[in-house]
Amino acid sequence: MYENAFNSIERALRAEDGIANELDYVEQTSWVLFLKYLHDLESERRDRAELEGRDHAPIIDGQYRWDRWAAPRKDGEFDHNAALTGDDLIRFVDRELFPYLGRYHDRATGPDTIEYKIGEVFTELRNKFRSGYILRDVLEIIDGLHFNTQADKHELSALYETRIRRMGNAGRNGGEYYTPRPLIRAMIRVVDPKIGETIYDGAVGSAGFLCEAYDYMRRPGISATDYDTLQRHTFHGQEKKSLAYVIGIMNMVLHGIEAPNIVHTNSLNENVMDIQEKDRHDIVLANPPFGGGERREVQQNFPIKSGETAYLFLQHFIRKLRAGGRAAVVIKNTFLSNTDNASVALRRELLTACNLHTVLDCPQGTFQGAGVKTVVLFFDKGEPTRRIWYYQLDPGRSLGKTNPLNDDDMAEFVDLQRGGVTGPKSWIVEVADLDAQTMDLSVKNPNAPEDAPLRDPEAIIADMLARDAETAQILEDIRGML
Fold first, then answer.
1. Contact, 241 vs 208, CB < 8 A?
2. pLDDT tens-place string over residues 81-138
3. What is the rounded distance in angstroms from the CA atom of residue 339 to the CA atom of residue 66?
4. Considering the entire predicted model, what is its pTM?
5. Domains of the chain (ranges plus CATH)?
6. Which residues contact 202 (CB under 8 A, 6 or more apart)?
């Protein structure tokens, strides 16, 4: 049913002039879904308060409630006469609904509250619907979706993830929001987070790392105390871009986290030397943006200055980890070998401050639409690196849009990593054997077969001429038979 609903929404949006691409599709679907989610959450909280004999203060009240403007009802049935549509609906959304919800910032007691999320979403986004009739169709479709059970949320989250993946495949900007889920799941299995630990992603994007970590930790039969810990005290994220922030919030909500602890801010604006123990976390899981280039004043927040955004994030992550904390971070593979001062200094700091115990080398095509190769760095904070276990991921096929990475591709890596097993695709490098000047960590598989020597050009030409002569003789023989 939900698959059909999402397909119907997509068909409606194709006719909307204000929605031009996959990014717009996810953005505009997100704010409508978010309001329907809040309505269902409101109903659940109201019922819970009645059972416990408590007063209930509604999150959204008056004419701004979902069942007043989006899906009004009379005697339990949808009231089409009371439902705004056309220009009236667009005027209400643009001039009244969004400004009203944007002011929820003023009533929020902190960034971990649902009021803060509402204020952020409706301050940063704008309604792109131009046809109130198309918006009315979308509202009525989404009104038929429900967030009441875990099964409902699971199905909706799977469909939403599909749309995020398609958005990521649609182009460069969309690709910033999507990390392949099989890669994320393998990273989480290696890091193995436990309930009671906090998990942080300072470049949260669509919150794929936090959502997958939640699914990993929410085991069957979990106690009420542990469930509350997962809901309120485990997952933390920060995101600079407005659209990514909204998508991340919605993705976590659909996975079952009521008020995600995601803050809309640029993590790199924080001076890493000012990070205190209370700001640190047990685990970092992240895929920070590559390239970019932050302003000079932002670079002043870091001891190692660099125009490469990922290098600043890596310094940020090291300092956001508690002593003994664990991290898995995706980064361009050129970080391992670049000889500029910033790259060498950062490798030296990583090897000195942390135990870089594993490097996963990912093949071309792991990230759809990305023209760079990546590696995953696995490290623990608090002791220097002595040896590094490398694994060269080779799924045995070319990865692409129609042939993406899957969980089976990652299984061997996860199994071998536990024991640091060496083999055709894995090996160990001793830090003592590294070049002391460059600290070069390049992926150089000592078990790979040597490339065959190149043939002499004269021999190649002679071989081609011989084949041409043979072909000519065959054709002459065929002509003689005619």
1. no
2. 899 999 999 999 999 999 999 999 888 887 778 888 899 889 888 999 999 999 999 9
3. 57
4. 0.84
5. 2-148 (1.20.1260.30), 175-433 (3.40.50.150)
6. 237, 238, 267, 284, 286, 288, 313, 316, 317, 320
